[in-house]
Amino acid sequence: MISRRAFLQASIAASALYGVSGFGNWSKLAAQQRLTQDDLLRFDTFGNLSIVHITDIHAQLKPIWFREPEFNIGVGAVRGLPPHVVGQDFIRQFNLTPGSADAYALTYDDFVALGRTYGKMGGMDRVATVVKAIRAERPEAIILDGGDTWHGSMTSHLTQGQDVVDVMNALGVEAMTSHWEWTFGTDRVLEIVEDLPFPFLGQNIFDAEWNEKSEDFPDYTWFERGGVKVAVIGQAFPYMPIANPGWMFPQYSFGIRDERMQEMVNEVRGQGADVVIVLSHNGFDVDRKMADRVRGIDVILTGHTHDALPEPVLVGETLLIASGSHGKFVTRLDLDVRDGRLMGFRHKLIPIFADVITPDPEMAALIDAGREPFRAELEEVIGHTDSLLYRRGNFAGTWDNLITDAVMAERDCEIAMSPGVRWGASLMPGDAITREDIHNVTSMTYGKVYRTEMTGQTIHEILEDVADNLFNTDPYYQQGGDMVRLGGLAYSIDISKPIGQRISGLTLMRTGEALDMGRAYTVGGWASVNQGTEGPQIWDVVENHIRRLGRVSAEPNASVTVTGL
Q1: What CATH number labels 4-368?
Q2: Ramachandran sector of residue 314 (left: φ over 0; alpha: ψ -120 to 50; beta: rest)
Q3: Which of 5, 56, 308, 515 gives 324 a disulfide partner, CB atoms 3.0 to 4.6 angstroms apart?
Q4: Cβ 161 vs Cβ 102: under 8 Å
């Protein structure tokens, strides 16, 4: 008798062979400039249940440029496995056509030239068009949001996330989980959650004082759709007090808590769940490990690490679905659920080409109304760029170089540090740089730029700690960020080494001298998790720098030498 895993493997094979995922069906059309909205939305309706997944919007409501990473390094057992493939390797692995729309959407290769051809991506008014089209075909489709939604733009900062909340409510989201939402602080999160028309899920959100499950946020929620009883379990970002300022949400603790996840899966199965979906913000490799440890999960909708994969990854009998970030993609997942079991699926990662998909007029009006009070500030031109500006990948991009240059220049520092957060819209060569553009790569609620002294030894220890977060072979010790970005300092990193031995060759770039472990250096940085950090806001520092220069040009970072791949 064929097993369920065999059914699922057959579904993945069918997706790859027949282009059920959508990639390959329309790429040749796109290359010939005949791509249409119908091409993007075409789907062979399947089974009796449809799921729509979006995640990591980072408050980007308008179409943007967004370059995918050229470094997404996997270590240990996941080395070379999706999502740890980029560029030409990605194109070959997923049988994409070089130069096609899918190659543009999913890789960094020839980004500028292909971007001129295929245009910007995203825009929640375009996402609304896609969601409405799916619901017109499948009225009972479940819309799920993987978190990192309310935070990451100038308007979300000014409205404390309200502009994004209004948009997601209008979109018809039916459940969400969380991460950067918490950096608005507990009071604001609770204020928003109280008025949400859907549950804010987190089976791993605990009361910090009593170490008991918080009653403020449900573990899971239920849907009855297409004759199927669906349980959706929420998994918030587990490393909140480590990766973000714990003083902003002292009442709560988080953690992976996979033993409790198993209890939740068992509980909903005992209550008659036909299919169990985990709405997660763990990050892909953490979810891969959880899927291997926790039995009974049918689908993990993964988020946090911004990966976009045109095919699901099967771990045991669990499907891992990665839907990208910044509104670039929407996932449609059709499930065949029979006799209380998931037996097959159809999957499509829908790229949101802004020039192809017609904006939904109601959502467009809502977005514009939210922006109108700030429009003059948003659109003010601060300068221009002569080079591609991007911020994505394990190591520094050109936006990062510009940010660290600004910190060193404006704060009179020898060395600059910038956080390796995984967001950031891109700008094309020749583009104007508006105030909104600067906020798209810097906006946060703890963005003050400090100026302090650090010894060479302290700097080395910081780099080793961050590198271990990124390259520890146990995914449960990875927090999903990227390497801290450095200005004024070059180094080598051997990712195959253990902690304490990865970083070497620290060199001051202005003098060529080796970093003196015992000497104190003037260091500027931002996004400190320490309460009471003093200094100007990072967006003001970057704005002042760009305004002073007028035109900027940032070359790809050549200060980091990577070995041990």
Answers
A1: 3.60.21.10
A2: beta
A3: 308
A4: no
